[in-house]
Amino acid sequence: MRRSFLMSAALPAIAALALAGCASEADTTATDTTPSPTTSQDCSPESLQTLTPGTLTVGTDTPAYPPYFEDDDPSNGKGFESAVAYAVADELGFTSDQVTWVTVPFNKSYAPGDKDFDFDINQISITPKRQKAVDFSDGYYTVNQAVVALEDSPIANATSLAELREAKLGAQVGTTSLDFITNDIQPTQQPLVYNDTNDAKSALEAGQIDGIVVDLPTAYYVTAAEFDNAKIVGQFPAQDGGEQFGLLMAKGGPAP
Amino acid sequence: MLNIKIFLVAEFFILILSLLIALGRGLRAPVALPVRIMCTVYVDFFRGVPTILVILLLGFGVPALQLKGVTNSPVVWGTVALILSYTAYVAEVYRAGIESIHPSQRAAARSLGLSSMQTTRYVVLPQAVRRVIPPLLNDFIALQKETALVSLLGPIEVLRSAQINASANFNYTAYVVAALLFVAITLPLTRLTDWLQRRDTRRRMAGAM
Hints:
The complex is a heterodimer.
Chain A: H1 5-9, H2 12-26, E1 56-60, H3 80-92, E2 99-103, H4 106-109, E3 119-120, H5 128-133, E4 134-143, E5 145-150, H6 161-164, E6 169-172, H7 176-185, E7 192-194, H8 197-205, E8 211-215, H9 216-226, E9 230-236, E10 243-250
Parallel strand pairs in A: 1-2, 1-3, 6-7, 6-8
Antiparallel strand pairs in A: 4-10, 5-8, 5-9
Chain B: H1 2-26, H2 33-48, H3 51-64, H4 74-99, H5 103-111, H6 116-146, H7 158-169, H8 173-206
Helix pairs in contact in B: 1-2, 1-4, 2-4, 3-4, 4-6, 5-6, 6-8, 7-8
């Protein structure tokens, strides 16, 4: 337990309200907690109920992949999600020095329980099931799922979901990409499931699978920067109404 | 069930290969020195390397070489990795059994005119193997559990199914079910080990009582 006694003793509701007040001014991290009409808020970083007072603790997984992060270093401000995290911190009144990063495995991020971060930014799609376990900010990116294959793969020129049905597909465990395979493509062969996207890419390169499903920005990065001979077969909206990445916070917790 | 398939195939090869390794290490003739060194190096290496590392190395590493005519199936390479790793352990179990046979047995057999090979085959091994059956089964129970590591390479086996389920629904009873399945498979093996051990004790004590 990294949470101090003071933190656990603090009334989460009040804390959330304090932050909700700040957030609505900042308009970047509106939470789904009910805003209070009565209180006026002091929004200096010191007064915010963060995990470590005066510091904004942000979680993401290791390795941190491009294009969301660069050089596996979230704290360099490069990469989309790193930039978003620092922009949020800035709106909340934190300087870059007051932001610390912690490693949070993807599958652990949205599991129920105490969190050791104020928010986690790790391409976590907002899904109704996850919302039962954790809180999300409004979406900061709308994402499509994409199928990536090597150019000599049997599915390289597929134009419909039906043509993907016979393929051997892979994805990372616990992701909406994997859900997309099982729910939307419904392949005839069992998909192969990996601990992280690197393993899935290794398997793709080695020809163990015909294609992998990842989110579209990752697909662009994989095909443009990492593989010479891979292409995006197609992209698909994964859910009705679109799928969005959100900042993840502990359920009802005193985080922004 | 994938775990059982991997287990059975791996066990078959492990039993044979590890016996060969154990016999190789037991050779005393000067001419057999290279064989002895090779077997010793093999055992030292694979006992010292984590199984998970061997699985990742073979499962992702070998297919990445894109060798012609070599399968890239993750299940096959995962099984090969388990075989390599466990053969080293089981070879040592065999060797312990072989060395536990008193030298007078061998001397007696040789004086009756049996060749060295025949002595090993008809006098030493039958006694040695009987002695090490409980530790052998112990290693197989461990192997049965380690089949879950093959999930790292992508195939969906019991553990991975449970993980997928748990991460979709935040209901961790899937892991409990997976645990019960593993126990259900290993339990018969465990009981068999106990029974063999009891029977062996009874037989050895029979003369003394």
